[in-house]
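Before drawing any conclusions, I looked closely at one protein's amino acid sequence and its C-alpha cells, quoted below without any editing.
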Amino acid sequence: MLHLLYVLAFTILAVVAVSNMLRNMVRLGTDMNRPPSPNKKPQRPVPHPELLDDSGDVINEPLLVMRSISIKDARDQLDALYDASSSGEDVREDG
C-alpha cells in the first residue's frame, strides 16, 4: 500500500514538473518572437564592488601581481617553511 502512495506522489510531482517545463518553453518562445520594448533604456554595466576604491571610483591598476621565481628558489622556500614548521621557528619572507 505504501509503495502505491510513493508511486502516486512521484507521478504527480513528475506531471507538475513536466507541465511547468512546457509552460516555460512556450513562454520563452513567445518572448523571443516579441519585438523588444522601446521604453527600455540601455543599462550601463555596474562594476563589481571589489573593483571600486573607497570613494566609489573604478580601480585601473592590476589587482594581482605575480613575480616569477625559479623552481629551485621555490623548493628552497618550501623546504624552509617545512623545516620551520617542524622546529617551531617563525620564518618570514623578505619583501
